[in-house]
Design a protein that fits this description.
By secondary structure, this protein is of the alpha/beta class. The chain contains 8 helices and 9 strands.
């Protein structure tokens, strides 16, 4: 089973509901890579439309892959080995299609309740029976806009705790999601 994760920055919404492109957060690159590597994710994609933001991501990657960071912390180098830096969702889908010979089933994450949300238990069960690669989309800012969510075949239930407060960082939310998906 091939499972991929993508953190998108374009097509997000801000707290007023406006469609925006969010900034790249460098800690997301290595923290999400570490979670993905721990749970056996095939590749973690960062997508940003700005060539300057992609260059910044490449600079961070090269520091840990080829620079001083490669010898200072080899665990970080290993975690970042699954990172791929791309421009947009279409590039990610095309690359997964090339890797796997078929396009992925797209799963979206959201912090919002709604109808027809896929439970983590059902996803975990389905992963054992599906041959198609899976792509989990993560949003930044205040979440993915409707245009991005419309690409999803399924939308996962939100992460919720024992309180009404629900504003986890994307790094924390993904770690919880991966644990719910891959551990019993």
């Amino acid at each position: 089973m091939k499972f991929f994760v993508a953190l998108l920055h374009d097509g997000m919404v801000d707290k007023q509901g406006n469609n925006v492109t969010t900034s790249l957060t460098l800690i997301d690159l290595h923290d999400i890579s570490r979670s993905c590597k721990t749970y056996g994710v095939t590749n973690f994609f960062i997508a940003h439309p700005s060539p300057h933001m992609r260059k910044l991501a490449h600079t961070l990657f090269e520091h840990w892959d080829l620079g001083y960071g490669a010898t200072y912390n080899s665990n970080r180098k290993d975690a970042l080995s699954i990172l791929k830096i791309t421009q947009n969702l279409q590039d990610i889908i095309a690359e997964i299609d090339q890797i796997c010979g078929q396009p992925p089933l797209i799963l979206a994450s959201t912090a919002k309740d709604g109808e027809n949300r896929l439970s983590f238990e059902d996803l975990r069960r389905d992963l054992n029976t599906l041959d198609q690669p899976q792509l989990l989309l993560l949003g930044s800012g205040w979440g993915m806009g409707e245009a991005l969510l419309s690409h999803a075949h399924k939308i996962l239930e939100p992460i919720s705790g024992p309180t009404d407060f629900n504003h986890l960082s994307v790094r924390s939310a993904l770690a919880i999601m991966l644990d719910r998906i891959f551990c019993r």
